[in-house]
Amino acid sequence: MSYGRFAAMILASTVIMYGLMYLNTYELGHVFFSETRAWMALYMGAMMAIIMLAFMLGMYKKTKVNIAIFVGAAVVFAGSLFLVRSQNTIADEAWMSAMIPHHSIAILTSERANIEDQRVRELADEIIKAQRREIDEMKWLLDDIETNGRATTEAEAEARPVPEFEGEL
Fold it and tell me: Which of 51, 86, 118, 165 counts the most CB atoms within 10 A of its CB?
């Protein structure tokens, strides 16, 4: 097997893993590009490269290339893990774009879980309502920031108040 094919397998798998992270969102309208999920896909792809190469070392005979792949994948893993954990690259819009799918997952699991205890059902319904309201608010904020820019002062925020959202069940 060639190293190019190995790289293609890792790249394809990383891209697919990024997409798979959205399969548990409640609805397609809750899927937004998430920089956080991109960093997560990168660290998963890097770890997969390490594991796959370790299992297939007998097929890849170039020691220096193998070491470079192990070191490079370890660096990508460490760097992307740092970026996920620190959130250093995540600003307002990127944060909301990551949080909308996250909230959507809470709706899916709260709505579809086989809940029999009425207290737990009530809690799940409250979560659904809150998550829908917060998704609506984040979508509004994304649109407002795109149209009018960020409200970086208290006066700017007061001039553009966030509407009240209901979060219907």
Answer: 165
